[in-house]
Amino acid sequence: MTKKLIIAILALCTILTTSQAVLAKEKSQTVTIKNNYSVYIKKEKRDKPDNKKQISETLKVPLKPKKVVVFDMGALDTITALGAEKSVIGIPKAKNALSLLPNNVKSVYKAKRYQDVGSLFEPNFEAIARMQPDVVFLGARMASIDNIEKLKEAAPKAALVYAGVDSKKVFDKGVAERVTMLGKIFDQNKKAKTFNKDIAQAVLKLQKTIEKKGKPTALFVMANSGELLTQSPSGRFGWIFSVGGFKAVNENEKLSSHGTPVSYEYIAEKNPNYLFVLDRGATIGQGASSKELFNNDVIKATDAVKNKRVHEVDGKDWYINSGGSRVTLRMIKDVQNFVDNR
């Protein structure tokens, strides 16, 4: 055997050994995250305030996981924006869940390669058991003790990561935290930082605009099957007050799942400068009712209506897909564009 041949063989062995070591390292690499969230004790009693249990744990999650199931639609938006959609193998498609996605997300996940794993509320455990994902990103709607225990049985090796925005944190900070976490898991830290910077800049611009307008008053109302429900400033839509800078006319309203039923007279009495409306029925396909509800003389007499300061927000973004990096930026800019012209 010639000297050159021996050197070539040794070089090849070195390359193979190094490649195997790199592959083994990549396979074994994980990231550590804090997984703090609340779950429903009994999923059939979601509206009860004492029906939640706090979970606090530290998890090791595979770096750049290959098989991911996503139940949080905001997280799905961020994962897609990070360019990690090929890691996703399943999302909720049952009960019209696919139709509730933003168009730029739906166009990706309508493909058959993305399997149906149930609805936003109820996982299909048999489907998940067949798929054996590396990671399951939990959403607020399906996060119950029962569902989590069944997920552990169906996919015992999967890391169960809560991906919804922490409701105890100021909205934009909570979004930034989740975007950072997903950037870390999918090894897209640079993109995640850019998304968070864009959101922070949009927030600052909105705050300055609201400040210049003298911090006008506002009320957020949900229209639901012919009923008007005001939303607490401490609730899911309260960021327009805590972050945006509007002054809430219902600052003492207690937090509840869908809001507090009110009359036309209540809104007239509060008489906000701005009125934000979300039509839940139209969003989830149960029929629009906001235009009909606001077509009456009592509401028409309010300052918000007279000054054309009533804005119907995009229900898919605000109600279903909230927390996503692109969705959040779109929501902030939506409010910005509206107040700029009013």
TrEMBL record:
Key word Transport present: yes
Keyword RNA-binding attributed: no
UniProt name for this protein: Ferrichrome ABC transporter substrate-binding protein
Similarity comment text for this entry: Belongs to the bacterial solute-binding protein 8 family.
Signal peptide: 1-24
Annotated localization: Cell envelope
Domain Fe/B12 periplasmic-binding, residue spans: 67-342
PROSITE patterns: FE_B12_PBP
Gene3D superfamilies: Nitrogenase molybdenum iron protein domain
GO-annotated biological processes: iron coordination entity transport
Gene Ontology CC: outer membrane-bounded periplasmic space
InterPro entries given in the database record: ABC_transptr_periplasmic_BD, Bact_iron-sidero_bind, FatB
Record SUPFAM superfamilies: Helical backbone' metal receptor (SSF53807)
Principal subcellular localisation of the protein: other
Alphabetical keyword list: Signal, Transport
